[in-house]
Design goal:
Blueprint lengths: L5 H21 L8 H19 L4 H25 L1 H6 L2 H24 L9
Helix pairs in contact: 1-2, 2-3
Protein name: Malonate transporter subunit MadL
Organism: Hohaiivirga grylli
Keywords: Membrane, Transmembrane, Transmembrane helix
Length: about 120
């Protein structure tokens, strides 16, 4: 039943968009800055917290996995083209923020990969 978990997903989306809009307002931009990404982080944290507390049923976990799989490619793709013109008109600050995020993530690949222990069935 994919309907389970939709309430948590929608609450996380509202929280993420609110954080992104607040951040955009604080930076002087009339747009959402990373709301979808914040929503995904909030969803991961909230579902992990609820799972540890024993509040999540198997149906809710399955529903969240389903909607997360739908959420990532569709909503992120919609958000990507949403503010491209505004970001380009925003000047070098938006471009530098994007380049900086990519550089930081590339720099974090090796340390994050070192933290993960590969499973026995992995052939890499």
């Amino acid at each position: 039943m994919a309907i389970y978990g939709v309430a948590l997903l929608s609450a996380c989306m509202f929280i993420g968009v609110w954080i992104g809009s607040t951040l955009g307002y604080a930076l002087g931009l009339p747009s959402d800055v990373g709301g979808v990404g914040f929503a995904m982080v909030v969803l991961m944290l909230a579902s992990e917290y609820a799972d540890k507390k024993g509040w999540m049923t198997d149906a809710a976990n399955s529903g969240i996995k389903f909607w997360s799989a739908m959420y990532i490619p569709i909503v992120v793709a919609m958000a990507m083209n949403q503010n491209v013109v505004a970001a380009i008109k925003g000047g070098p600050c938006a471009i530098l923020a994007g380049i900086g995020a990519v550089v930081v993530m590339f720099a974090l690949v090796r340390p994050l990969a070192a933290m993960v222990k590969p499973s026995e069935d992995w052939e890499g």
